[in-house]
Amino acid sequence: MSDRPTEVIGDAPAPAVVPPRRRPGWLKPLLWTVGSIVVVLVLLVVADAVTRAVAEQRVAAEIEKNLPSSVQADVQVHIGGFSVLGQFLGGSFESVELDAPHATVNGAPLSASIHATGVPADFSKPVQSATGTLSISQDSLNKLVTIPGAKGDITLGDGVIGYDGTIDLLGLPVDYTVSATAKAAGDTVLLTPGKATVSAGSGNVNITRLIQALTANGPFPVCAAQYLPEGVTVTDITVMPRHATVTLSASDFVMNEEFLHSKGSCS
């Protein structure tokens, strides 16, 4: 037998139990507060989106309702700015875009876009300012606009407007065709003749003398205000082959039926 003492094996010691870590007492209220803020922010975003959609529909419907019977347009509205709800509660919208890409005036198609600032939520109050563009084809222009004294159709070329007319030169009536540059001048568009030709049967007419006669009183004014609501002015005009773009502006006006049905005049 072995002389080694007998080892007595007892129960193994139990592993140490780590008590669960307790969350700080302030964490639960913090999580509840953050969660509540997130919910509120989400609700505000949803409310703002709904308010934006409703306001855009209201503005579009109000404009379409007040258009003259000669104007047909499906107006699309976009309200800019960070919070439409905040702007509405403040009484006005910072920036409003209006687009009517397929409008017609007396059956003539054209497209229009307007950028307005300081648009009141109450339509009985004035809009601060607006800038718009009209894009019109040569065919539509001839249906809507006439040049006093001009005969036949207006033609649109590369930076020039062409038209036919008659002038008394040295006591004789002379038929001519002229191309003129156009310049915006508020309530009028000024036409400055450049090149001219005489019609057959007008005799031996000196073209230089014809141009001098056409420009003797300066550029020829065409009243633009008569085609626009009162207070709207022409600030720029760009002429391209068979197409023109006109830039308009207005300020401190009420966007109501009276304004949209009004017509300006030239002094």
Description:
The protein has 267 residues and is α+β, with helices and mostly antiparallel strands. It has helices at 27-66, 84-90, 138-144, 207-214, 257-261, and strands at residues 71-72, 76-79, 92-105, 108-120, 127-137, 151-156, 161-169, 172-185, 188-198, 220-223, 233-240, 243-253. It is 25% helix and 40% strand. Strands 1, 2, 3, 4, 5, 11 and 12 form a seven-stranded antiparallel β-sheet that branches. Strands 6-7-8-9-10 form a five-stranded antiparallel β-sheet. Strand 4 (108-120) and strand 5 (127-137) form a beta hairpin. It is elongated, with a radius of gyration of 36 Å. 20% of the residues are buried. The model has no long low-confidence stretch (mean pLDDT 84).
What characteristics describe this protein?
five-stranded antiparallel β-sheet; seven-stranded antiparallel β-sheet; 5 helices; 267 residues; alpha+beta
Q: How does the major sheet shape up?
A: 7 strands, antiparallel
Poorly predicted regions are: none
Kindly state the mean pLDDT as a whole number? 84
- The quaternary organization reads as single chain
Number of strands: 12
Give the amount of beta strand, in percent: 35-45%
Report how far the terminal alpha carbons are from each other. Answer: 138 Å
Helix content: 25-40%
Radius of gyration: 36 Å
Order of helices and strands: HEEHEEEHEEEEHEEEH
Label the overall shape: elongated
Total helical elements: 5
| Content-based structural category | alpha+beta
